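Hi all, a correction to my earlier message: I attached the wrong file for TRAP-type C4-dicarboxylate transport system, periplasmic component. Here's the right sequence:
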Amino acid sequence: MMSDAMKPSVRVLSLTAALIFASVAHAETIRLSTLKQPGSEGEAAALKFAKLVTERTEGRIEVKVYPASQLGDWTEVYEQVMQGAVDMAMQPLATADDKRLAITWFPYAFTNYETAKASLSPGGAVFKIVNEAISAKGLTPLGVYGEGMGGAGFAKAVENPADPDATHNLKVRVWPGGTTHKVLLERFGYNTATLPWAELYTGMQTGVVDGQIGGTANMALESFKDITKTWIQYNDHFEGDWFIVNSDRYAALPEADQKILLEAAQEVSAERFEQVKAADAKALETMRAAGIDVVTFDDATLEKLAAVARKDVWPQIADELGQETLEQLKASLGM
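and the right structure:
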């Protein structure tokens, strides 16, 4: 039989165990959807974010990652995050219902990794614009997972690509609705044609178009390696997926935990900015090894191309972004 002297200690232990159990039982679970495939660098980034949050909240919050669009197509998930059916996502922004979000691919909003990182971090111009646009839809941005700097791939040689005033007898595919890059390419001396993604490979193979723009070197290697003869690293835009969270869900968390989520997303984002620079460089080396003529530009040339785009192209595509948003972007660049 238990002695009376031992009973208080047992009661204390039982109470402690009950409190621990209750704490675990009431841990917050946040569901995070991503397009990234299992085993990919993108999934690893999402899992690291989850690990950081769980560790720093001491188990108060568990982030469960759903890769490979397990919770639905990314456009559907975007709506679900707005509605609160899904808590978070790491994916592209759906731009159809707010033209301000065209800022995410607007040509020459930045020209290198350093300016992209500054503009895509809290306090940066593009981050502010995105925050204003999506906050009205019940979304809060936390960070950006970078995919890389954009460029253009061609099935032929390209003469004088560094000269924005050169004339090229080449037709480049732009995506349906890709007015921003249609105007940009035409200013740089190319002809353009609209072609669905599903028809692009065959179009380049058969000469319907001579090239394509709108992706990174890694994307070109994945889809067009065998038909790409020239790659021009224009640095015309930066590809990235956004960490977004339902605003009500986020606001319901204690302020300290909100800060932990934001800091974890920013830590993963900052780490990726360093990785993506190396990843882009590696992709360009892979292209060279495959016999692709890779054209890169020094900072002075990139700034020259950007200056031409900002002076001659931006006024023609201002409606794609909205004049007010364009003025915000220009102000951030000292224009």
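Sorry for the mix-up. The chain has one domain: 7-332.
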